Amino acid sequence: MSTESKFLPPVNDDVVWDAIIVGGGMVGAAAAIGLARNGFEVLLLERKAPHWSADEPLGVRVSALTRASENILRNLGAWEAICQQRCHAFRAMRVWDEFTTAEVTFNAADVGETDLGHVIENDLIQYALWQEFDACESLTVLLDQEITALKLPADGLSNSSLTLADGRKLNARMIVAADGGRSLVRQLAQIGLSTQDYDQCAVVGTVKTELSHQDCCWQRYTKDGPFAFLAMQDNYSSIAWYLPKEKCDWALSLDDQQFAAEVGKASDYRLGQVVEVGGRGAFPLVRQHANHYVKRGLALIGDAAHTIHPQAGQGVNLGLLDAAALVETLSRAKSEGRNFTSLSVLRQYERWRRGDNAIVQRSMEWFAWLYQDNPLKNGFRQTMLPLAERLKPGKNWLMEQALNGREALPEMARKYSL
């Protein structure tokens, strides 16, 4: 982002924004662009502007984007810039476990598609979205600010407001919380959570393997949890290695040679030896779901509303659908002359997204449960997965769901509008 006027530290306290979005990550940035392009005066709050460079090593945090997410990013203008940099399409996915000989392969060609999705660095997605800010005349960015208080219309005010650490007060018709799983805005709004700690961590990083990944994502279930290779360019793969919490520090403490050997073992050497190890990191696995997505003058999107088990890379995809659904809901209400901050309008967004997100959360947990080491479950997989491999209609339906999402997708996610 190059336009200095986009960053406006001396914000006028008297201004009432249509929307203040707290959090400029992938989901918050998408919502900001969508609202600004639909005529909303938007203020985006973020700690710092994103940085990404093709000269730097591959980032350790990536997402496997679906076709619906691709359409959203196309409509927001960011997709072409992403694809000109580091963006890798995967055309197949293979799933197996260490307890049985059963395997399932999903192939894009079976549903008439060229790919099943794209593996892209999170930093690149965010950076590409921020490059679109310059074209949004009604979008302003405020960096490096800390929020200390939140007031909503339910407190007797006509507008919502945020108080900053320096004492300034920002006023808006509504607040959008896109500030992640530990959302301060959600806490200040006193919206509770249902949570489940999986007692696991995800070790993530980048490796290069001896054998080609064949534009395929590989996922193996082990006694510790899933292990996955996500295909990237030049025969690199992003890994997601799920371990009990007590093994997390051990995995991070290994030197590169030891780490490469352990990754080889965890992956059953399907791609041969690991010949190069890049950066790595880890994060705890916790499912969260906000008890409510909205209050009058407030909406939660992305991880502020929900986090899921990341084994299928659905977190960002769900967040982008939240952003697109909120933009569509508010824009429709505004065009019809209705109060877009009212509970009746905001609950349309909540009904649209909350149930779908809950289904995906439970589906991810069901897959993790199914692949646990248990004689009955092992026998079930050994018997049923070969049958599922031969019954293409069932597999094809699953691929269609994963690619394009469920019913009632937001307009931005259904198609690319030139």
UniProtKB/TrEMBL annotation:
<dbReference type="InterPro" id="IPR036188">
    <property type="entry name" value="FAD/NAD-bd_sf"/>
</dbReference>
<keyword id="KW-0560">Oxidoreductase</keyword>
<comment type="pathway">
    <text>Cofactor biosynthesis; ubiquinone biosynthesis.</text>
</comment>
<dbReference type="GO" id="GO:0006744">
    <property type="term" value="P:ubiquinone biosynthetic process"/>
</dbReference>
<dbReference type="InterPro" id="IPR002938">
    <property type="entry name" value="FAD-bd"/>
</dbReference>
<dbReference type="InterPro" id="IPR051205">
    <property type="entry name" value="UbiH/COQ6_monooxygenase"/>
</dbReference>
<dbReference type="Pfam" id="PF01494">
    <property type="entry name" value="FAD_binding_3"/>
</dbReference>
<dbReference type="InterPro" id="IPR010971">
    <property type="entry name" value="UbiH/COQ6"/>
</dbReference>
<keyword id="KW-0503">Monooxygenase</keyword>
<keyword id="KW-0830">Ubiquinone</keyword>
<dbReference type="GO" id="GO:0004497">
    <property type="term" value="F:monooxygenase activity"/>
</dbReference>
<dbReference type="GO" id="GO:0071949">
    <property type="term" value="F:FAD binding"/>
</dbReference>
<protein>
    <submittedName>
        <fullName>UbiH/UbiF/VisC/COQ6 family ubiquinone biosynthesis hydroxylase</fullName>
    </submittedName>
</protein>
<keyword id="KW-0274">FAD</keyword>
<keyword id="KW-0285">Flavoprotein</keyword>
<comment type="similarity">
    <text>Belongs to the UbiH/COQ6 family.</text>
</comment>
<dbReference type="GO" id="GO:0016705">
    <property type="term" value="F:oxidoreductase activity, acting on paired donors, with incorporation or reduction of molecular oxygen"/>
</dbReference>
<feature type="domain" description="FAD-binding">
    <location>
        <begin position="18"/>
        <end position="335"/>
    </location>
</feature>
